[in-house]
User: Fold this.
Amino acid sequence: MAMQETWKSLSTQAKSGIVAGAVLILALTAGLGFWAYRADYQILFAEVA
Assistant:
């Protein structure tokens, strides 16, 4: 209940900042995960023919 009361007492600007920060953190985490697990393609054989 204390969290709901705190949220209600915040201004619209503060709520927007918190939501934007949470979205940014989620986007950065997803981007980092995508970058970390992408396939690292390399040339196996060059100038074979």
